[in-house]
Structure formats: structure tokens, C-alpha cells
Amino acid sequence: MKLQRAETMNQRFHTFADMVGKLLVDGFHYLALFAIGSAIVWSAAVAFLAMAEKGHASIDDILLLFIYLELGAMVGIYFKTNHMPVRFLIYVAMTALTRLLIADVQAHHSPDIGIVLVSGAILLLALATLVIRYGSFKFPSGQADARG
């Protein structure tokens, strides 16, 4: 009788500890997401105000805003689904490399191996996106099926 009671108490303790642990992890998760989202909005607002103060927006500025948009979308998707959309990280990298490429061309006005390397990196990231999209279509995860 005492053994059964001890096992019941042990199970209740584990259930309570799991609930507290889940609460703490979820609390930290949401706090971190709100902090990251706030930092993205703040950075985008500062960049936009700098453009407004300048009186015009360059292609470099617009691509920077697209990076902020992609990061914000990534945080929003992660907030809703608890899954990190890897493709959005690749999109951010592609946009950042495009921004670097445009800045390099505007500054130097001469073709060199750096332009070819950055272009190759963008192509490689585009191919990685293609592979990820094909893989997720051809081999969907069980969680994706459950979400509908």
C-alpha cells in the first residue's frame, strides 16, 4: 500500500515538474520572440527614418528594408508554428548578398572576381532553396500533415 502511494506521489511530482518546466520554457520562448521582434521593428524604423531624413531611398536602403521584412516574417511564422523556416534564412542571406553585390558594383564600377563569387553564392543559395522546397514537397514531415 505504501509503495503504491509513493509511486503515485512520484508521478504527481513528475507531472508538476513537467508543467513548471514547460511554463518556464514557453515563457522564455515568448519573451525572446517579442524581444527579437521588437528589435527588428526598432531597427527597421530607424532605417526608414534615416531614409526619410536623407530625402530619398537608394536600392541599398530598399533591400535593407526587405531584410527587415523577411526577418519579421520569420519571427511571425516561428511564433505561430514553433518551427524555424529555414528558407527565410536563405532569403535573408540572398538579399544581403544582393545588397553587397549592388554596393560593390556602385563603388567600383569594374567587373572582378568578387562579383562572380557573390553571384555564385547567390546561385548556390537559390539552388539550396530549390532543394529544400523539393524535399519538403516530396518528403513532407508528419507535423506538416497534422497541421493540414
Architecture overview:
This protein is mostly helical and 148 residues long. Helices cover 89% and strands 0% of the residues. It contains 5 helices and no strands. Helix 1 packs antiparallel against helix 2, helix 2 runs antiparallel to helix 3 and helix 3 runs antiparallel to helix 4. The radius of gyration is 23 Å and the shape is elongated. The model is unreliable at 144-148 (pLDDT under 50).
> Low-confidence spans: pLDDT under 50, at least 5 residues?
144-148
Alpha carbon gyration radius: 23 Å
Tell how many strands the DSSP assignment holds: 0
What would you call the structural class? mainly alpha
Largest sheet at a glance? none
Task: Tell me the overall shape.
Answer: elongated
**What distance separates the N and C termini?**
47 Å
Task: Please report which band the strand proportion falls in: under 5%, 5-15%, 15-25%, 25-35%, 35-45% or over 45%.
Answer: under 5%
- Supply the number of helical segments: 5
The overall pLDDT, averaged over residues, is: 87
Helix coverage percent of residues? over 70%
Helices and strands, in order, run as HHHHH
What is this entry, summarized?
By secondary structure, the protein is mainly α.
How are the SSEs placed, and which strands pair?
Elements: H1 2-54, H2 59-81, H3 86-108, H4 113-138, H5 142-147
Helix pairs in contact: 1-2, 2-3, 3-4
Task: List the main descriptive attributes of the protein structure presented here.
single chain; 89% helix; 148 residues; elongated; mainly alpha
